[in-house]
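Practice set, problem 2.
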Amino acid sequence: PETRTYGINGVEVVGWGLEYKTWKVDSTPKGLIQDILKRYGNHPLDGWYQTKESTAAAWLDIKEKLLGAAKTRVDIVKEIMAKEQFDFSLIAYGETHFAGHLFWHINDPQHPEYDPELEKAVGQPILEIYKACDKGIQEIIDMDPEATVLVFSNTGMGPNYSGRHFVGEVLGRLGYRAEKVEREAPKTSGLPAGDVFAVERIEKIVGQRNIEKIKSLIPEKIWDTVTRKFLNMGSDWKDCMAFDIPSDNTGTIRINLKGREPKGKVDPADYDELCEKIAEQFRALTHPETGEKLVSEVVRSHLKYPGDHSIDLPDLVIKWTPGKDITVMTSPETGEIRRDHLPDARTGAHQDVGFFLAVGEGIRHIDGQSENLEQAYNWDVAPTILQYFGLPVPADMDGKPMQDILDE
């Protein structure tokens, strides 16, 4: 949904209703997108700055906008598909993604922000949006009942529980971060102090609605460049051996490596040893009352994902024990650290496991749980589709066809 292709033998619409545009809204043929925007308009959340609403009326408004967008998406798809017979169609719903991120706390009684009165007023927005998408899929199937249909999610969704807001302090207590007290920087210099929660502090000061208005007046490329430079001003990275950098759900750590970082301190000869030591120290973090481990895995990015651009990745990725709202942690080296619930406007977060459904000609019929299928991965979807059409799978594709879902 984010990647523009060229020379395609068919029709393509890119960027209508993405959470974050990495590509301009565009189409093949060129004039199609203008026709779509003229008759259907922009996605109702286009350009919307993700906000944690404070009233039931505001949450209801977002729900209705997403329900309307799911219907509009299907209307656009049906109009395109009615014009000619396609061999292959791919439709991506952005509405389920918005819903999972924004509404999780409304229907999850275990979430720290759950409010039964809010649930009563707003209903079940995630379920309602899923149903709207499901209804749309049926409408598309009805246009070509003989088609083979795949429905899949590249991730799952669940509560946005993470310990990433602890990473900076853990590094500080272990002696890898500079001694400077970060929160003093904005008081003395007006700078945001350059830590991973500078965004949240600025939002509280300026207001999310005001940021949304300002952002709408500035070209996106300029906005991204200027805001990131500003948010990093006042950081103490140059004085650290290792520092945390902004991330989504995981904790992410960058080593201040000589020859790579502008003010590198760590000798490349010590890099591997330091990475392993930090990983071991994070794996030692536990809940002080239960003794439960809070880190499920520490990934050495460059080892797991080697390549020319691995230098752009964080050196260490901290994966947290799933399903735990982390507000306290301890280890022999750090002592006990307590912090409030993760300060994130999104109460839902990506989970590792999504789903894959397939039905139609060429697909084996499997009766419930009567047999076990191999675990599939996101990168297996494209090779499976290629094999289904009898096309070769390129050697540089990491995935493999899902042989156990295809009939002979």
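Problem 2, part (b): a different protein.
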Amino acid sequence: SVEALAKKIRTWQNRGEVVVFTNGCFDILHRGHLTYLKEAANLGDHLVVALNSDASVRRLKGESRPINHEIDRALLMSSLGFVDGVVLFQEDTPAEILSKLHPNILVKGGDYKPEDVIGKEFVEEVQILPFQDGYSTTSIIEKIQGSVEEGRL
């Protein structure tokens, strides 16, 4: 729960440990995601990931998404050794959850500018990490669709 994670974050911070936060759909976990998450984890002592719920993903990405159920996405994310906490959120942005968690660092991908990041007022610092070119969930889905249309799948 958000409350349990907030309590855990306070414990870490009270010990002087830095908590890094990022969020996203992470629908089909791929190398670009893993590289981004590992880089985010390296910015502090603990990485917390907020996942958009299935309803939130549908509103943001369309009715055909997500491919993977929120519980499955959360299980995959929590299985990564460098991720210390995972929580789902229903809203379209992470502002509400950030207002409760108050991590030290908020990390976003390269298509953001620090001044435009939603929730920046709830953290000490915003970091923008570059995207890994050639890796996206959309491109994976398009490749699968193309293979189906060509009769290769």
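Answer key, part (b): The longest strand covers residues 46-52. The radius of gyration is 16 Å.
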